[in-house]
Design a protein that fits this description.
heterodimer, A: 351 residues, alpha/beta, Rossmann fold, seven-stranded parallel sheet, two-stranded antiparallel sheet, 13 helices, 44% helix, B: 320 residues, 2 domains, five-stranded mixed sheet, 20% strand, globular
Chain lengths: 351, 320
Amino acid sequence: MPEEICATVEVRRLSVLAADGSVDEALMPPLAEGDIRRMYELMVLTRTFDQRAVALQREGRLGTYPPSLGQEAAQVGSAFALQPEDWLFPSFRELGVQLTCGYPIQQIFQYWSGDERGQQAPPSLNIFPVCVSVGTHIPHAVGAALAARYRRDPVAVAAWFGDGATSKGDFHEGFNMAGVFRLPLVFICQNNQWAISVPLSSQTAAATLAQKALAYGFPGVQVDGNDVFAVYRATHDALLKARSGDGPTFIECLTYRVADHTTSDDAGRYRSAEEVAVWSARDPLQRLEKYMERRGIWSEAYAREARQLATSAIDAAVVAMEAVVAPDPADMFTHTWAAPGQRQMRQRKGA
Amino acid sequence: MAQLTMVQAINQALAEEMARDERIVLLGEDVGRDGGVFRVTEGLQERFGSERVIDTPLSESGIVGAAIGMAAYGLRPVAEIQFLGFIYAALDQLYTHAARLRTRSRGRYTCPLVVRTPYGGGIKAPELHEESSEALLCHLPGIKVVVPSGPCSAKGLLLAAMRDPDPVIFLEPTRLYRMFREEVPDGDVTIPLGRARIARPGQDVTLVAWGSMLERVLKTDSPHSLEVIDPQTLTPFDWETLLTSVKKTGRLVIVHEAVKTGGLGAEIAATVAEEAILHLRGPVLRVTAPDVVLPLPRLIDSYLPTGQQIRTAIDEIMRY
């Protein structure tokens, strides 16, 4: 018997918006001007929050914080494609996703200040608490998708994680189940090239992360993660596919963690300034500005106004965060179980 | 009323609750077409369909992780881990997420799931099929750990576990699955979680044991009047029932098939030392497995606590 090729791997990379601000009109998603402005303003808001959070941490007013600098397009572009009833499972570096879906800014600050009340999502949002344990939330998204299908709810479920998560067992267990059950899921990897000090080349021997989905029987695509239109388009299409019962999609966003892993990290110990400079020049926000300027919907005055609006929103949120009454120690007992056990009741009295 | 084995009682509890509550969905390895390796879920996929009795890939962390997502979404998943010895891959999901979801989301999301798993030794099974690592599971607030000791308690406790608003690990003592039958009441007879049962009232010595060891304690002949307590729920533990008994008898023997160091017996002994030491006539004694890796079946009888060891402990404490 001859040997035959029984499987081949083909992974496409999608780019829409070029570095000079031009777009491939054939691939450009149908976004209204208002949508594009809104995406831009959300990216500005994300960057403004990010800069403020790092500054507040340095002043001792916030705890350890993981910056999103450079990943605004991948975060905002993917979240922008969602519907309000969809379910979101973010990792811990998903500020742009939180802001895009309307998570209260004050609460995001509150969480990073060490106050758990920041993780209580408003009732109108189906967003999980951010997941600090890398990749372990992927099976939760699978479960939510199973439940949504069981309920016949027309919703899709999205999960975000980084390149490091693709080495975790839960990534593979979750992907495998998503494929087997053909669930309404979109997995979005922020491949920002670094998992703290470990570069992508030490994280995987595979040519792409996207191809990992193929082993689980569903498509994986790579997109330019600093191209907000490519990210939006890939997510939008994947969500449509998910909602129509055609199963999951994996989107690998090629982007870069321009800042340190967290405010406790010093990336200068393990990567070159040249590499950071190369990626900084691919800034997703500037690229979108160039496009908008070409199209006549961007000006210095507009940008200034967008930054001012973002700054005012952040200022107000910081004031509100710092005015919050400190949590009561007895509050530790409130949500351990619906009703405390005998021992907890006694311990609470002493708290 | 019918004479049922524990396997049948658990199957009945699952079937009745599934009929009553459409949020109950079973998932696990071989739970559907095969009815589970112990046949606990036999006939349920046929009756309720493959959307409610889901055969999953071989994926312990995936099963528990998916159950967490389902529970948060509003279902009441009942996941099966085929043997307790295979749950270690899913401990991350249990500890990192199931136990904390209510706290981490400040009550926005809850995790009303049940993880059923056969546990315990003495069934002539291969490696990792006879584990008794309940203390690991008891060390994390946010998770409840329930152990039935017979068909009646299995049904009543499982019904309560499926209705509990928080994650419950339901440890099914494999040795008892088909060892004896009991009259199990039909219908909706729940046993509340967090409450111990006096399995036998007595005056001289309090014995605490759960699961398969309770059966061994109840079979132990003794000339003394033994008060035997079946905690039923290991976390949250019913300290009131235990302390009331110890204050009455002044003597306590704890029997568990898990290893001694860091076992739940240590917590029980420490609590009695804190809260009832002045009522004690003698030391608290523990009859446990030795601190060794669980042996294969040829040596399991030398590992598990024996009736003779239990008798010896009772005789020793009665000298005080």
